[in-house]
Amino acid sequence: MKSSLKLALIFWVLVHPGTLQAQSGDEPVKPNLILILADDLGYGDVGAYSSKQIPTLNIDRLAGEGILFTNGYVSSPVCSPSRAGLMTGKNAVTFGYCDNLSPTQPGYDPEFAGLPLTEKTLAERLKPLGYTSSIVGKWHLGELAKFAPVKRGFDEFWGYLAGAHDYFNAKSDGTGVEGPILCSYKTPGSISYLTDDIGNECVDFISRHKKKPFFLYASFGAPHSPMQATEDDLKRFAHIENPLRRTYCAMVYRLDQNVGKIMAALRKDGIECNTVVVFMSDNGGPAVAPISNGSINAPLRGQKTTLLEGGIRVPYLLKWPAKLKGGRTINETVSALDICPTFVALAGGSFEEKGSDVGVNLIPFITGETDTPPHPSLRWSYTIANAIREGDWKLIQLPDRMPMLYNLAEDVAEKNDVSSQNPERSKTLLKNLGIWEVHLPHPVFREPADWRLRHLKFYDATYQLSQPD
Prior knowledge:
The chain is an alpha/beta fold. Helix 6 runs parallel beside helix 8. The protein is globular.
């Protein structure tokens, strides 16, 4: 009998090396850290957030085994400043990173078109703490050499510097979305389908660095334009009549498959238990023409480029089996800015930045060590709009109308402006927002002026407020 038990234990160790490591007390104190970022994903377009149309079993499994935040926000409704906030833990407008990267505008110096060198990235904070860091996929924080990921703390980079890339074609001498795939540690081959390639490179990184603490920034391009899906995935959604929506669903499905690929790699290598995985989108989905990718942010109104909920509230999941009980939903307001200080704290470091425009370590709040809400107040500024949320109340300021006030607890779709019924609250929020805005520094670069006219129209657009069957 003893011999049989001994053989069974040996077999278990061979198949699950990480499990015995955890049981014997030899598991590294420092967890591995993975940030999986979708690009332009609609708030309700995954099953865990009410999608009925797109099977996202792997993302849903993350939600079921981890923490689901219903009030998770990004710091900007567009890609580049949102990512600047993610990488620094600071609202990017506080260091002049206000707009999306675009062609240099008159009066601005292209040397400043990127994440300021004065700002410290998450990878730079983790390096002295013993972490190997990699970004796989989209960077979008500056294309000059000085802004490159390997100059900003990352040990490895496979991907592209700009805001979008073709899913099937990458040319060594190409430009625009068909530009080359860059790699710091090998000669990159041709791409098959970009979402799959990003997933494969993430798995390869995990395999090569599984024995020491690592930070993996899995920065997917999907479902950002160009809207391109594989034929097999398009067939899966052939029943959807709208071709744009069909392609979008296929792209989100393929994204989900590669999230599953990353999680399977962690399980295979026996390190899933002590790996912290965060999944989120960089902003809301662009849901109406002329920028629509077919996404639906329902039940939220608004979209990418707006400070309505559909532009800044995103799917936000966190899983850490070793320390956090899963299967929970948290309704308190949290921010993408919290990822940086949370990861730094888990790595054994300290995040010295303080103030209302920086992130906080979420772990004490999740575990119940503190019951202080992470963010009693959040503020946003993007081109033509400013917004503030305090508790359930949110005020949006636009240049062509009186400020709009919403009670998000009663009106998550922001259909009913209640500013006239609550003049004192409106006045207080507007004052708090104004005091904040006048203290912001001058932008280091700007978008073209005519883009602002388009952004303004999106506040009056009609949005679908229910998920399709």
